Amino acid sequence: MARRSDDRQGFFAVFEHLDSTVDACKALRAAGYKKFRAFAPLPEHHLLEDGLALEHSPVRVFTLSGALTGAATGFGFTSWTSLDWPLVTGGKPLLSIPAYVVIAFECAILFGALATVIGLFINAGLPNFRRKVAYHPACSSGAFGIYVPVSAAKASEVREILTSHHPAELREDQEGFDA
Amino acid sequence: MATAELRREAPTAAARRERGALPNPDVQSYSDVNRDVLKVLSRPGPGWWILFGLAAGGVGLFFTSWFWQIYKGIGVSGLNAPVGWGVYITTFVFWVGIAHSGTLISAILFLFRAPWRQSIYRAAEAMTVFAVMTAGLFPLIHVGRVWHAYWLIPYPNSRFLWPNFRSPLVWDVFAVTTYFTVSAVFFYLGTIPDLAAARDQARGLRKKFYHFISLGWRGTDREWHHFSKAYIYLAALATPLVLSVHSVVSWDFAMAIVPGWHTTIFAPYFVAGAIFSGVAMVITLAVPMRKFFGLENYLTVKHFEAMAKLCLVTGTIVLYAYLTEYFLAWYSGEPPERGSFWNRAFGHYWWANWTMLTCNGLVPLMLWFKRVRRSISALFVISIFVNIGMWFERFVIIVTSLSHEYEPWAWGLYRPSIVEMGILIGSFAWFGFWFLLFTRLLPPVAIAEMKEVLPPPLRRRRGS
User: Fold this and answer.
1) Which of A104, A124, A144 is the last residue of a domain?
2) What is the ipTM of this complex?
3) Does the beta carbon of B172 lie under 8 angstroms from any beta carbon of chain A?
4) Is the pTM of this model over 0.80?
């Protein structure tokens, strides 16, 4: 059986221009490559939407469920504690809903925000401290990048697609990295 | 074809400058932004060390005064009957208010797509976090026996009786802790891509530090895709939060039947005042930051003019609220209410009231003039007046109202003690200490978001 490094390799293409990057992503997708990664120094929506056709992010489900859980917790907590030892204060009803709205609201925001962060971390794979990941430091400054993990048989086809879109640098990794 | 569309769509540099996002033509490419912003993180100059030394000294004063109060007891403050809330609560409300403009600029203006927000919001958000950190200490200082501060957490007493959730003070605990958590999370998440940029330029120990706190960010499509959505949702959550927090703080007063406090305009009045003081504080901090760190290309006159307009709008609302309060005190026909406001204007604390009215009502009226709005030195001076005025506003509301309630035999005066003044001055140093550290450790301008207002680098020119 072939070792992983013999079978898998990767290409890291660094692009100076956004349009070349978007075109290269489309060409890769048209050629049937799905498991490649694009790198950008900013959330460039042309790259994400046109180049990669990314669907809706599931983070919103986390936000909504967090906020609803928070609101329910806020109401539940205040109501339960009021009924746990029924004590009328200030002539107000035991379940003073308008007053509890404040607590429920704050809990909704708090839980919603924390759930959003959890959703982001799960979906974006953060924190990511793995050592062998594909990266090029130019991609946090002015350049865009594409990393394509590929089998040895398809290497020349990928090289050709990437080269035809004028990369500033094409790095060939003999050992495939995590994309 | 979508890329052709991209070339058609991408506004030219001239069109973007027209919109006022980044008027300085010196900043042209994405890497220029990295170069200019990350150079701030290099070796600090003597000016920074002097300021840092002063701040550290002030932090010493803060903790010395506080420890003295813990050692001797709350009696070393001027707090007593009938004025049980003094400088500590005044300063608490002041710092919570300062925090508000950071969230306004980072979240509300983000949702409204205001193009000038990009260069200023990182500093404003940092200010929010540090201001809440400062404000959060004041209830602990105020309660005196700080070792019992955990009583603030809602949990049942030894007889299993829970706190009264109808009390605005309990609401305040929820509001302020939520606000601190959410604004800190929002601030940190926004910095992650920029920390990765700092990591890629740093060496040695700094590189390790940035690698760790950037969570291994690489700027992949997957990361950006979820990040930009998460950011929108956090902004959408932070927007109602910022309005709620100062409303809840105002209800600490408005829910009580003290004359001068018990009014329905308190929530919007406090929120407008909070944003007013916060924007003024952003101006106060941004003017020296721009100068010392050579960020003139990023913080331009256009940005300051936009902030001056925010100050003008909120300042006008505040002035209107002052006038409404006086009008309603007269119109209510309630002798204690009328007496309270007469006492504010002409009683023992008249000087505080007139300082407040001058600094918050009259001085900001100068912002109606375009020349003043476009003069950075004039804005700096006005912003300091507003900072002073807004502190006095809270002092006037809290102290004059408590000193002059219903029964004449229960009236009394309050004089802040030297310990309270030490803690007040020290709180500015504590805030400055964190802000100075921020300017050296985290990119003070949002690098990735600045790039969004620059034209993208295209291989083929527009229209071709």
Assistant:
1) A124
2) 0.91
3) no
4) yes
